[in-house]
Every structure is written in C-alpha cells, then in structure tokens.
Amino acid sequence: MAISFAQCFLAVDDHDKALAFYRDALGLEVRNDVEFEGMRWVAVGAPSQPDVEIVLEPPGAGPGASPADRRAMAELLAKGLLHGVNFWTDDCDADFERVRARGGEVLQEPVDQPYGVRDCAFRDPSGNMVRFVQPRGR
Q1: Residue 57 half-sphere exposure, CB side, CA atoms within 13 Å?
Q2: Residue 54 belongs to domain spanning
Q3: Of the four listed, 69, 92, 111, 123, which is most buried by Cβ atoms within 10 Å?
Q4: Residues 106, 124 contacting (CB under 8 angstroms)
Q5: Which domain of life is it from (predicted)?
Q6: Residues 66-84: tens digit of each pLDDT
Q7: Is residue 25 a contact partner of residue 99, using CB atoms and an 8 Å limit?
C-alpha cells in the first residue's frame, strides 16, 4: 500500500482576498473553485507540485459544525490562532522581498535558525501564518 499527501485545508474569511495573496503574491495556481450551499472552496497549489493542494475553505465548514462552532472558529481565525502553512524555498530572501512588495503582512523577516534553516513568516489576509523555509546549504 502506498499513500501520498494530497490536500490540506486552510480556513479563510474572504476568498477573494485570500486569492490575491495565495495566487497573486505567492504565485500559486488555482486548481478548483467550487460553491456549494452558500459556501466556497478554492484549491490552490504550486506549479511544481501538481498533486498537492491547499483548499481554502470557510471557517467551520464541516457538516457537523453548529452555528456556535462556526462563530468560535471565525473568532479564532480573526486572532490568527488556527492553521498555518510552511513552504520550502530555494531563496528565502527573494521570496520574502517579493511577498512584502505585494503587501504581505510581515511577521518575521528572514533569519538563520539554530535548527538549520533560514526562514521568514507572513500573515495571510485571514490571519493564518505562512512561513517560507530554506534549508541552509540550499
């Protein structure tokens, strides 16, 4: 039996703002855009990884989520306390400058970490942390 990674889900409160960040600032491609029962899911991914996607979904989109659960998820998202995503990169500094130039909210400028990587971090328009990680020596 062989398994491989396919998708992860990231809550966003405004898909159009999220697309401006993930597609326009980060350079990911849109692979699917689906509306169902008043909600929207948008799958994005790196052109270099055609089999891996990030699905941008509404907070608390699960079928078992109550209205109170959805409100709680939206509040946690607004505080930046939900998910995050890390991307490998060959040039942390160049990616940092490109995303910052396109208006990305900087959380951490590029820095060499004691555990062998150089990384930086941004917050997406919904509050999720997005980190670029470059292994040293790459």
Answers
A1: 18
A2: 7-59+83-135
A3: 92
A4: no
A5: Bacteria
A6: 889 888 888 888 888 887 8
A7: yes
